[in-house]
Amino acid sequence: MTSLWAKTDPYHPLWKHLLDTAAVSLSVRNPLADDNWTVEQTALVVGLHDIGKADPCFQHQGFLQDTDLQSLVKKQQQWRSENRDLPEWKWPDEARHRQRKIAAAIASKEAAGAGFPRCADSRYRHERVSAKFLENVVLASENPYRSMAIARAVVAHHGYWDEGCPWPPCDPYEQAQKQLFELLKEDLAVQDLPSWPDADLSAIGMRLAGHIVLCDWIASNEEFFQDSRLRGIDEPTDYFEQAKTVAKEWVSKLGLERVMGAPKPENVVESPRPLQQAILDHDIPPGLVIIEAPMGEGKTEAAWILAEKWRGHGYTGMYMALPTMATSDSLHQRYRDDYLKKLGRDEAAHLIHGMAWLRDDLEPKKPPHVGEPGDDRTRAAEWFRPTRRAMLAQHGVGTVDQAMLAGMNVQFGFLRLYGLDKKVLVIDEVHAYDAYMSAIIGRLLQWCACLKIPAILLSATLSAKQRQAMVDAYQSYRSSPSYPKASDKSNPSSTSDAHDAPYPLITVAPLQGEPFTIPGSDDRSITVCTSRTLSFEAHPSLLGDAAKTASKAKELIQNGGCCCVILNTVKQAQEVYSKLADLPSDQKLLFHSRFTAADRQRVTEQVLDIFGKGRWIEENGERQFKPADRPERFILVATQVVEQSLDVDFDHMITEIAPMDLLLQRSGRLHRHKARNGNPVLHVLLPKGESGKPPKFGSSELIYQRYPLLRTLAQLAPSNGSSELTVQLPGDFRKLIEATYADAAADNASQDLKDAKANWDDLQEDLVAQAGEFLLCEPMADEFDPVGHDEVGDDSDDGNGWRARTRLGLEDVLVIPLKPEQVEKWKDGDLPPRLVKWLYKRSVKIPPYYWPPREATGYEKAVLGETKLKGVWLLPVKPTNGGWEWQGVKEDGKPYTIAYDSAIGLTHGGDK
Predict the structure, then answer these.
(1) H/E element holding 75?
(2) Of 393, 324, 318, residue with least CA distance to 355
(3) pTM of the model
(4) What is d(CA 126, CA 51) in angstroms, rounded to the nearest whole number?
(5) pLDDT tens digit string along 244-260?
(6) CB within 8 Å of 410: residues ≥ 6 apart
(7) How far, in Å, CA of 375 to CA of 158, rounded?
(8) CB burial class (10 A; 0-12, 13-18, 19+) of residue 910?
(9) Helix 14-27 and helix 173-188: axis angle, to 10°?
(10) Residue 627 contacts by C-beta under 8 Å, 6 or more apart in sequence?
(11) Residues near 745 by beta carbon (within 8 Å), at least 6 away in sequence
């Protein structure tokens, strides 16, 4: 048994690896505690995850056939006999691969010499053998569905669910497996696994699957099992005691500990707003909570208050899911300063999105060597980077995409569900997601209900249909009564999806029991909410007219004030900004998504410093508040990046037409932080009205669907000689939103509207169907089968793969501009971390039109990077005054230019 190996590069015996993983399991929160599993029982299953390596197919998979390397094998065998480590040669990748073959061959020879026969068949992977051992030996007397749930959790620890059909082991491997099993039981003092007749199999299986992967990856880190304290110990009990010490240190170092702490909901805000007071006053049990309230009413803080109250139920942290990287960056700082530090919590808040690692000073210089030969080791190593690890930590703030992947059949997506366990999931701006994303979020909510993960959804402009869909998704897993379908005037607490439901509204779907609402009309509800009059001022024919739009903005700030102009496309925003050329540079700014990562961060911080509430800063070791540096007059030209989750405030606002719910969302940045003289006015740019002709929305129709645009236009179009529509908020929220997304077009509606409605309905069905292709199966209490027949799933774990994407639409191309000689020098991607960070901070996203590009005369072609630059295009550009440019040729032979300037961002001659 002691001759069997688990790792070859560097060498590590199998029995030690099993004890390593069991030791890690003892140091991490027990995910099955609520199911009456002791930490030792859970650790036993974790330790058995690799018992299938005691199998000829694994032990001899590296048998050396290359006679040219025999001398090297003998040399390394000699080094090992002298207790010398294998040398860390800085070989190229191919030679490094051969070295691993040598190490595997040595281990194979040693096993054969100890009486373990060779087998050249490698069709079956060891995790399948481990799963079958658990079914046939450990859980032989259990209900087959229960034993299958544990086996599936084990088989998934390399990211795939394919159980296969492994052959039964032969002697002496069968005896070795039983000896290893007895060794684990003895050191853990465990005889049997618990009896669990009424257990929720999907919940146990999913929690256990994530737990096994995490423990295996920590124990497989070569820095872990090569710790000097573990060397030279050949007695299992002594080794296990040292392994537990090392494991505790690693779990602490990785930031995976959960700190409980007493709930402090009353300390989150000093002077609660009505919405926040309602959360404080009501007894809201863990479950799904949907908070609908106007912009600026403190929904985010209300979610923090509720999460604090749920600490008393054992939920120790949060993941805040935001629509974009920019909003994640902004809220991350608020979460850390205005929540954790304010409550005196010495707990880290991690930022989680595709580019967050650029700001992480703790990135390791060398990625950890984890995983198995033949696996994508870089994928496993990714989870040890601080930003990815954040999904497993107590507090995280990031994009909604990171959470959505937990509901999709992507490799190691279940590790995200494991990370959410015993935390609160908060999804902001939940109204902003299309049917495709909403379908994914719906499946995520089903698994959240299965795992008893509370979820809080925040929105100012949620439609009744969206609200109902989210409640139905969360409740579909439980057998509790269905959500009431009709308004009951005699019982305000059972208000349902009627269009006249009170606003603001708190909807609660508990994990157990009937759902209820806390409406705006109950004596113990949100009795007061900031009320204001909002005027929509229509500007027909200005849609798409950059010059007149810029002129209107300058007119609005003529006597002072700050104006935000929101355009629906980057190209139009840049054109409007260019028409402000006569405005001083310190009175204007452009904000959109097509800046480099470094410039995007700079602009975001500038926007918050000018138009935000101010922020807390550390100065001379003290925490001090720095108020916003608001100018006398200013024009911010922006795209949708400014409308969601950014706590900013403007005196004036101009916007291109968008669906009504988004216009209302944008208006929430008007007069947000303090009242002004006069009511806020939202100036809306409308298409030219031509009698008898359908309106033309131009590029806005590339972003939004025609049906909600037409319904919005009908509400805003000037009538009776007036260009203004005046509404009372929040009272008119429901009416405006439901009129935009009505389920049917009236019989007397125009043919244009009827056609748009038909196209809209077809699109919604298509989006839901496309999302369904990549979802996990629905959880089942009596069976754990999360992927059905799609056992392999998709390996695009970061959501940027061609298959399982969290968002539909054309995929932008990530480009790093370089000098031609730098492209040739760095294209292999074998670069130090500091240089990689520097390169990524220069990266910019380019529209995918005409890509891969064909270079014009005088320019060199783009090159696709490798290894650390995998998936990134290196573009050999020419410097310009303050930027760079590159020229390509379209399919029709016409040239186009890609250029960058730090003030206006990327311009692309191929934009449509």
Answers:
(1) helix 70-81
(2) 324
(3) 0.84
(4) 8
(5) 999 999 888 877 778 88
(6) 774, 793, 794, 795, 796, 797, 799, 804
(7) 8
(8) middle
(9) 30
(10) 614
(11) 753, 754, 757
